[in-house]
Amino acid sequence: MTNFEETNLSENFQEKIFDGLNPPQVEAVKCLEGPLLIVAGAGSGKTRVLTCRIANLLAHGVEPREILAITFTNKAANEMKSRIGKMIGDTARATWISTFHSFCARVLRKDIEVLGTYTKNFTIYDASDSKNLIKECITDLGLDADRFTHVPKIISREKSNLVNAAQYTEKSLEVKEGGDYVTQVAKIYTVYEKRLVDNNALDFDDLISVTERIFREHPEVCEKYQDRFRYISIDEYQDTNLAQYRLVKHLAAKYKNICVVGDADQSIYGFRGADMRNILNFEKDYPQAKIIRLEQNYRSTKMILAAANGVITNNVMRPEKNLWTEKEQGKQVRFIHCVSDKTEAAFVAREIKKLVTQENVRYDEIAVLFRTNAQSREFEERFIQADIPYLVVGSLKFYDRKEIKDIVSYLRLLMNPRDNVSFLRIVNVPRRGVGPINLTRLTEFATSRNLAIFDVISNDEFLFQVPQLSPKVTQKLREFAAMILSLSASKDKLPVPAMIEAVLKESGYLSSLTEGEEATKLDSASRVDNLSSFVSSAQDFAEMEPEGTLEDFLNHVALITDVDEIEEENSRVSLMTVHAAKGLEYPTVFLTGMEEGLFPHPSAATVSAMEEERRICYVAITRAEENLYITAAGERRNFGKSYATEVSRFVYEIPRECLATFSERHSLNSNFRTASNAEAIHEQKYYPDHRNRRAAVEKMKAKIIMSAAKEKIDWQPGNQVRHKKWGLGTVMDVQNDTLKILFANPEIGEKNLKTKFAPIEKI
DNA sequence: TTGAATCGCGACTCT
DNA sequence: CGCGATTCAA
Fold first, then answer.
1. pTM for this one?
2. Known catalytic residue at A460
3. A98: helix, strand or coil
4. Whether residue A85 has pLDDT greater than 70
């Protein structure tokens, strides 16, 4: 950077930082020291304020590395990073902008060893890993797993309230009614806690609570971070739970430069311990706090905002607020009462087609929202038929797929040999002739010696002591151990993507899918496809973080969510739950399934739970910029049966003048006299073999994947290719499935790429 | 041990 | 209805 630019920097800053901000926003951006609460209504530009405020801190000479910003999703973090980067340049990279969980993971990778129980290479277990481990604890205690199905939820809740197993046990002694049950839960919790340590693993809640514990028990570590992060901002503060709240409190205790942003009306994470009181009591925590309200909405039309306000005013427990907009009046919210869930999906598909073909709307300007993930299926089926490109955000996360979890388990085992959960998952995948009986024997032996299972099989002295192992099995286990050890030896030498390819190959995982009978199976193709996406995501990661280790990549994989990955390249309709839509906005929104018994969800038994449902509805409505459709089905299929449903109370809470109501019943053609008849016709038409409807959908999906696939291309030197990231190139050499490609971009140069994995097309 | 067939139960939201 | 867990035969 030249001196000239340097001198112009601060004027430039002023312009960029304050340009287009309204007075309260300016005030917030200017307030740099001390505690600050920004009460920011939906669409009031809070992200912008947070971003500009950080830029302003930097403009005032605060070092980038002194800044910590916690956001709700990784996507929001990345967006903020890139916006700040645009304002002030590369130095912004040194700021820590991340989610609570990523922040904690980073702290723990550095400092977890002060506890003496974990090592830095710990594994992060996702929800299903920890659920499985808990189940194992239950059966090992000789208890009936069916009676304890919601123990994972209980434990998670206790952890987010910073109650550990010992404290829970103590608490359980005082419980009078149902004390038996609680006592047993306490036992399960205790065993689970111990197993996590044995496995050198942390679950999601541990990431927060263990970090909090370190800050509490080791003031010297805490102070290190206090001195480092002298300026802290927390987004979506209304959704923090006790653990997160305490964590923030520790961090901010010394300098008290803490800025929190939030909106109590958008608190929708009560189920994981979020406590609105954290934001409502901010002034009590920090009596000198400055409070700024952002009440001008820049997102939605007057009509949509009035609808949202009409709904949320029905909440009693709510701070006074007046959100307004200068935007145009806009169209009324359209409410369509459909016959069934099927016709609802059909309506949405038709309307989307109409918008796209007649009104020049792009697919990616449209979102379909629902309360529960299960509702997405109907839309998916319909959209496939109608050729509407879509993206389901959430539900089955990409990294939750079997094949991905398998490979991740291999990688985890390489990192952390103590990880028995991952070991047991993959030791017989692909089949190595090691069945459950042998594994139980192994596990029992390892547990009795206080060893990790992998330690046993990688050490002949131990392995030969395991009772009742046949020589065949022993041999297989030794081969497995040797394979893992040899992969492990190369883990620091190979770049992450190459490492993954090596695992796929050496483990025999890939060939088990591509060779023999498996290869002809329908889902093998899509699994291989997913694995190739996994490798490309590792390539993306390696590009973004050239220094990134396998550990860093696994961190990333454990903490990334689908919302983080909404891509902008292809125009697709987004399908997601309201929760996943938080923080996002779309010109056109379909809010679907607005029925009693679904939204509000029947589990909302108390007044405060119902108020949370209403806030979820408020969040949904306020995602829309111009067009909002609300739909309800008169009849919905659940567990294979159809039920009559009633329109959600929230629909009636929308002011009449904001709502245009349509009923599908009156506009049906003669074929559709009754709902059941309509469904019969629907089945016949689209699924000739409707006993196998699911397979039909899979087939359609596979077809789509196939048509895009680059398989069976006859590659020749001289072929021109286009790579998703690296642009144009020429094939220089072909060896089996590996292409040597010279890219036009001199910075990329020559690369060796696997045809199966590389995101390339022949041109 | 493995693969196929059957059984039984279940779904709210997410890091 | 669909999935995962369990059961059973080879």
1. 0.85
2. no
3. strand
4. yes
